[in-house]
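Suppose you are handed a protein chain with no further information: no name, no annotation, nothing but its sequence. What can you learn? This example shows the usual starting point.
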Amino acid sequence: MLRQLCIIGVSAAFLSGCFNTHQSQAPIAKTYPITHQQKMQAAHHWDVLAEHQAQLLMESDFLSGKAFYIHHDDNGSAFSQGFDSLLTSQLVNAGAHVRTEPMNTAHVNYKVQVVRHKDRGYIRAPEGTWTALTASVGFAAMAYNSWGEPALALIPFAAAADFWSGSWTSETSSEVIITTQVTEHGRILYSSSNIYYINPGDSDHYQAQRSVTKAVPVTGTW
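A reasonable first move is to predict its three-dimensional structure. Written in C-alpha cells, the prediction is:
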C-alpha cells in the first residue's frame, strides 16, 4: 500500500511538472486570488455607504474646512433620492458644513453604473467547503451505522448553521458601481468607488426612471 502511494505521488509530481514545460497556442486562464464583495439588499446598506463616505470626506486633508454642496441627482431612481438624504444627514451629523446653495462650496457628486453579466463562468466555493461537506457526510454515516440515536448527529450541524447562516449569501449576475466625487473649480479633490453585488430584480433601484408616453388615438367621431 505504501509503495502504491509513493508511485502515485511521484507520478503526480512528474505530471504537474509537465504543465510548466509544455507550450500552448493560447494563454491559459488563471483565476484571481479570493476577494470579498458585499451585497446590497436593503436601504440600510445605502445608509452604511453614506456613513462611510461622510467619514472619508471629513478625514480628507484636501477637503479640510470646506463647505459642501450635494448635487442632487434628478434621475428619479430610488437610490438617488435615498442617497441624497442619507449622505446629507451623515455629513451634518459628522459636523460638516453643508449648504443649500452651490456658491463658494465644494460640490459632492456621485455616479451609479449597473453592470449585468450575461455569460459569467463558474464561481468556486470558498476554501474548505468541499472538505467540510465530505466530513459532514462521513460523520453522519458513522453515526447512522454505529449510534443508537443517529439523529443526534444532526445537532452539531444545526448549531453551526444557526451560528453562520447570517453570513451566507450568494453571488449574482448583477453588480453596481457607485462613485462619489468632490469637485471645486473644475478640479477633482476626492474620488471613491465602491462595487457591490445586487439582486437582479433590484436593478431598477439604481437606474433613471424613464417617462412613458402613451399614444392617444384621435378620431373624428364624437
